[in-house]
Specification:
The protein has 18 helices and 15 strands. It is of the alpha/beta class. The strands form four sheets. It has a seven-stranded mixed beta sheet, sandwiched between helices.
Amino acid sequence: MAVTKILLDESEIPESWYNVVADMPNAPAPPLGPDGKPVNPQALSAIFPGPLIEQEVSSQRWIPIPEPVREIYRLWRPTPLYRARRLEQALGTPAKIYYKYEGGSPPGSHKPNTAVAQAYFNHLAGVRRLATETGAGQWGSALAMAGRMFGLEVSVYMVRVSYEQKPTRRSMMESWGARVIPSPSAETKAGLSVRERDPNSTGSLGIAISEAVEEAASRSDTNYSLGSVLNHVLLHQTVIGLEAKKQFAKVGDYPDVVVACCGGGSNFGGSAFPFFADKAAGRQVRLVAVEPESCPSLTRGHYAYDFGDSVGLTPLLLMYTLGHRFVPPPIHAGGLRYHGDAPLVCQLYHEGLIEAVAVPQRATFEAGLLFARTEGIIPAPETNHAIRVAIDEARACAKTGEPKTIFFNCSGHGHFDLTAYDRYLAGELEDAPYPEEAIRAALADLPKVASQPPG
């Protein structure tokens, strides 16, 4: 009988996270202070607990997963790996298409993989409250759930356009006890400064990060949690790719290409980094990060040191950036509306070890509907970006006759995004390529530091 769903036992949940730094050809560039000097990791202790700081700067290949974290993982992990046979048939392709389905977690996405870990380490440190930001709401929902499990209060600054577009996500966060604030808000200096410049601001992840960091830095009982970008966040997400490798081994297969959407980088890092370990050892595998053309940080950004937030409260990170003051169009893939990308992802892209492609909004929903109508799962708008490129790869195989194996991460369901599907089906959804002059204007605000790299 043809296998459709490849499963693992709970005992096969990874016991350690994989740290890609151990296999990178060059050491990661350090975060810098405004003076251009490397930041002492202990400076991060004002908003992060010790174990997360240690993970952030570690070059150790394997980081053990604490048993209390694995215990909560068992609520939904291991997640299934599916063979998309009906999609293959619809495309008439000789390619084999597989996807890892992360939508079965309680919040419906991959985000709890790091939310649970971050809540656990903060709980151990005696922290009582966590402040964070969220775009489309997947991350805020995940941290709200994880905080509840470890008795932590959670406040979430939600990008205003998503706060208005996705009220059910807000309801989910509040059901777990989180306080949700539309960003930019009137509760922080960062939010007020943005509102003064633009009273009608739709917000951005960079602005929401500024507000959450400000709250965490101003309260001794509060730490900050981030759902993407930083090294320790991508580390926690590697349970996705590590499980997938075990599942591929069960059916005697291995991907030629790994595809995942990329906003801040946790989705892509979690899916692709474990396969990068094999690539570093000489195996041929393509790793493709997919971003929206309205927020094309990897494909059209500048490789430079920039702030991780809009106001300039964070250390400077070396990344592909559209400028920390960049405010993208209000597309429905809110989780991909970030001005930069994870430094680890950016460095690998800069060194030519991974690929990146930007795709338009309507084409992603077209792909998402084809997936839903063949495989049955209505995917999140973010996931639609990965599906778009996986379908394009499979169609290319139909032309060449090459029987590639394609793997993508289906990082969440779209049950809370049906208004976006309504707009697409009504022909009201628009593409929003970001104008080159707006990118140039945003890049003009890049901080001037001595260690600014060329290009």
